[in-house]
Amino acid sequence: MDYVIEMLNITKEFPGIKANDDITLQLRKSEIHALLGENGAGKSTLMSVLFGLYQPDGGVIKMGGKEVQIRNPNDATALNIGMVHQHFKLVEIFTVLENIILGMEPTKLGFLSTKEARAKVCALSEKYGLMIDPDARIEDITVGMQQRVEILKMLYRDNDILIFDEPTAVLTPQEIRELMAIMKSFTAEGKSILFITHKLQEIMEVADRCTVLRKGKLVGTVDVKDTTKEELSRMMVGRPVSFTVEKKDVSPGDVVLEVEGLTVPSKQHRNNAVKNVSFKVRAGEIVCLAGIDGNGQTEFSQALTGLEKPSAGKIRLRGCDITNATVRNRSKIGMSHIPEDRHKHGLVLDFTLAENLVLQRYWQPEFENLGFIRKDAVRAYADKLIGQYDIRSGQGGATVVRAMSGGNQQKAIVAREIDKDPELLVAIQPTRGLDVGAIEYIHKQLVHQRDTGKAVLLVSLELDEVMNMADRILVMYEGEIVGQFDPKKTTVEELGLYMAGARRMPAGEGAQE
């Protein structure tokens, strides 16, 4: 069997952790080869070795049977290897076209000449149905569009081996279907794809083979047509995983959160991003705000949690008006917030794990004495949460958060926010980019909050998560609440119609109770 790429006996160590321990991965021509594993299993590290971002401590890489040295991403590009990273590598103030040609700028007589490059980018965009605006700035386009830019960067460089690292973590259901079709069209043309994902359904739909890693070691490689979701999850986690959320019937108590006529201006255009939104969340219930990305959920969440100022409306927490309260005061009054973007709003990446775990409480007497932080108390508290929430890191509380896997970064935020014992937990995309074991764990934590009488507002793009977790579903479309549903009495298809704006509830029917 001829392989286009072979990674043989690859080993890579970081301080305190063996990220890759003697892993062999072989990619065939024109196949989609999935790489599956828990957060921190070593998937991204292995692909970073292949792309030249890391040098292996042991093992060899072969291409067409011959050993190759990949010292940096330029070497990888020269070998026609391209990579779409989980956290996109784009310059936000540059246009789409400028990002695509970056590093391979076409010049004439020493001056930038984009005419031919633009024609090539537009032709590729049309051929693969990627439909981007080459003159749009990255900071003004949706996450799904940014990913298309990353894909076009690879195609523009004529890459034949394409690495996708968690490509669907930030996409809507419709965008995921489009991406799957694009990936299949790539392999039909002879390109080969390595596809890192946590989502078993996606592997079953598009992958030919699947290699499973667990805690840095190779568990095995299987033909997808000969396996099941259950078997893959058992290989990945080492135990059976439940795909359904078990929860008791809901019995809501008093109103904890009341949003009344909230309006939030848009940064992108003149219209308001959120328009006159009103609803209530009661103690002991999970209310889920569903919708396609870019319909005002982000702006709403930021106004609710104090990151943005609304232009009209009121927010009350346990009857107390917090519309203009600071983030810290909202936290003190009883709001916890799992943010949408863990890097931008959830963590200080160059702080240690212990420092991040006390970000919301370091000024409290147990952690502070005469203006100085009590490091022993912070360490002990971090050790408690690390054990309780199974946060994996090479050096415990002393680990710099930037060096941790995305899933363990997310667990750290969940631990910090839930341990504050909040009245209201606002969870925005809390399982984005997580593996099935971590998703199951975080869902249990949210249900536990609800069962102990807390109010939970969950904002999610994942329809399966919405249907599984919610006691009540509110659909947001173009900044308005257009429908309210009982998950037991609706279907994914019906929600989809409201999310796409094809249907809406009659005017005057509010989402009050």
Please count the beta strands (DSSP E, at least 2 residues each): 24
**Mind summarizing the main beta sheet?**
6 strands, mixed
Strand content: 25-35%
CATH topology name of the largest domain, in short, is: Rossmann fold
Number of domains: 3
Question: Judging from the principal axes of the Cα atoms, what is the shape?
Answer: globular
- Which architecture of the largest domain would the CATH scheme give at its second level? 3-Layer(aba) Sandwich
Rg (C-alpha, Å): 24 Å
Report the average pLDDT across residues: 88
CATH superfamily of the largest domain: P-loop containing nucleotide triphosphate hydrolases
Task: Report what the structure shows.
This is Nucleoside ABC transporter ATP-binding protein. The protein has three domains: 3-237, Rossmann fold (3-Layer(aba) Sandwich); 242-334 and 423-513, Rossmann fold (3-Layer(aba) Sandwich); 344-421, no CATH class. The protein is 32% helix and 27% strand. The chain has 17 helices and 24 strands. A six-stranded mixed β-sheet has the order 6-9-10-3-11-12, sandwiched between helices. It has a six-stranded mixed β-sheet with strand order 18-21-22-15-23-24, with helices on both faces. Strand 21, helix 15 (436-451) and strand 22 (455-460) form a beta-alpha-beta unit. Helix 14 runs parallel beside helix 15. The longest helix is centred in the middle third of the chain and has 16 residues, at 173-188. The radius of gyration is 24 Å and the shape is globular.
